[in-house]
Each structure stands twice: as structure tokens, then as C-alpha cells.
Amino acid sequence: MSGQQMTNPELNSVHSVKILLCYILEKLNRPVTEEQLRLISEDSGVINYFYYSDALTELTENGSVISVSGSIVLTEKGRLGSEYFNRYIPLVFRKKLLKAAFGFFIREQNEDMCSCTVSETDDGCRVNFVLSDGGRELINMSFFAPDMSQGDLIAEKIKSNPTGAYKKILGFLLDNPEEEIDVEKYL
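Below the sequence we write its predicted C-alpha cells.
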């Protein structure tokens, strides 16, 4: 087995991909569009697009999944198949697909609640960070960065975990002690 195959294993049969797709639909237990399922599959690095396409077609034809209002829904037949056959799919594949799926929906949620823009100024750039929760603006602040590359880095760090950034900023502000004044040096 080559080093590339060992570090990035991929399922090599439509049958295995069908089981894995049913498995992920069961574990997610939420509406998933065909496009989202495809992106999750690609992000996982374990499902080849051609196997994915064939597997989804076969799952639809055999009644394991159906399309409801634009979402792919697992039927009872698909759920039972996943429950019975998922143990035949190595744990590494199931873990990679679950991680890709949860990561996908976290990124999607972060994009809905966070706006982070970088704009050039005369002396560098400004990174504006807005975090909202249910229509309520939690934070709206700007940071200075000396150049666009650093501004982009700040924006990417914020977008990767906007809630964490908000909590750290708020935590720092709440723990920020009053500045001590050293009067001894003036005596």
C-alpha cells in the first residue's frame, strides 16, 4: 500500500458508499440537501465522487432514501440497512465522514451568524467583526491590521470559531483589571 493510500484512505466500492451514506444520514438526523451531502462526502476525503453519484442513484432507486422538499431523507429500509451493515465499514471511514459532516454544518452555522470583512485603509486595513444571534447583535467591533495578509488571517481565525472569539473577548473584558498607577516613581 502506498503512503498516499495509507494517509488518505478511500472507499472503493459503491456498496460500501451506500452503507456509509445511509449511516451519515441516520447519524445527522436532520434535513440534508443532495448538494450538502455531496460536499460532506467530498470533504471527508473517503468517498470518490463517482462512487457517491452511483451510490445515491442506487439508494434512491431501491427506496433506501427519498427526496422530500429538496432534502435527502433516509427511509426505514435505509435506516435498517445502515444499522445492520455499518459495522462492515471500518471505523476510520465512519469517523472521517462524521467529522466532515459536523464540521460542514458548524461552518454553515458560523457563516449565518458571523460577518467578518477586511477593508483597506491608508495605513493598513480594518477587520470588522459582527456576531449576531437570532437577530440580536452580540458584538460589532473593528481591529486594525498593518496589511491585508494579517487582516485576512485575523478574519479567518474569527470565522473559524466566531462564538469562541466572542467568548474570549468578553472573558478578557470581564477579567480586565483596573490599571495600577505607580506613584512611587513620582515621589
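The first strand starts at residue 32 and ends at 33.
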